[in-house]
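Here is a complete protein record:
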Amino acid sequence: MLRNEDYRSKKIIFVSSCLLNTNNKVRGLARYPGMCKEVFDTLNKYGLGINQMQCPETLYLGINRWYHTKNLYDCHGFRTFCRGLAEQVVTYMEEYVRAGYQTVGILTCDGSPTCGITITSWDDRWGGAPADLEYNDAIIEGEGVYIEELKKAIVDRGLEVPPIYGLAIDDESVDMEKILADYEEFIKLVCE
């Protein structure tokens, strides 16, 4: 082994905060007590380093926020806030590239109004006084606000957008074993 070399894989994955710490989720959506252990067991199995992305929703509105859909977050102030957080992530990515490391992917929470990658939420009835609306009725195809800003920030810095995968773990109608099996296939693919 060369001097100052060690056993690091030099492979990194960026992970949404709520997958590492369910306490950042809006109340009522957590399917596990602290972190989704199976998700991290898989990352460990493939020797991936984890960089936690900040939760824009928690930092912007706090832990006790109401449920929001993308249309409530889709405003200049929140987008600017998300872009600032995204710029920090891209700085990490740039530094990893300079050191010869690889960002193999980004892992998000699909269905989130901020971090969704294939599904997010939108409902024009949301807004004003809190109402008893069903979140699953608001799920639509599309990306969350933070993911849109993150992808723009990556491109603006001249980097390639790594593969992004969303775990739809908030949707109790989807079998958790299927979610985890599909996810492991994604990790296996990006690590090849």
